[in-house]
């Protein structure tokens, strides 16, 4: 009897994992139809023969409350029971439910089709600083790291009298020049 309670907690854990999948605001207390379908696909409840995606959607609509768009954990168990009787027609209701529960227990959503960075020759050529020539080569230091803004923009020296003034720092010397040999 105690073993059965452990199964339920594993089932409830799976329910919560799928309930919060893809929704940052989800609490894990109820599950949307999209996540219910994902659970049935990922855990192998849908077999394409006895249970199809349409069957899963019909059972979801049947067990949820009329005004709600989600199902609770208790409604989830009822829905699994209906699918179990349809999937395992040769077994009793309780045996069928136990089989479906085993399919789902401890499972988490499968994350497939996530975009990854592809190491294509084009991308590697464009991101390799040793391949850059001309003025673009100046954007990187000796180690190949980018210089940031200093590598992209000509930084103008505005410290002189006018831009590009060659004799910077000589004005004070000219003004304070000693007046030797000049009449006062």
Automatic annotation (TrEMBL):
GO cellular component: cytoplasm; microtubule
GO molecular function terms attached to this record: tubulin binding
Renumbered residue ranges of the record's region Disordered: 128-149
Biased composition range(s): Basic and acidic residues: 135-149
Keyword Membrane: no
Key words of the record: Cytoplasm
UniProt keyword Cytoplasm present: yes
Domain of life, per lineage: Eukaryota
Subcellular location: Cytoplasm
Protein name: Tubulin polymerization promoting protein
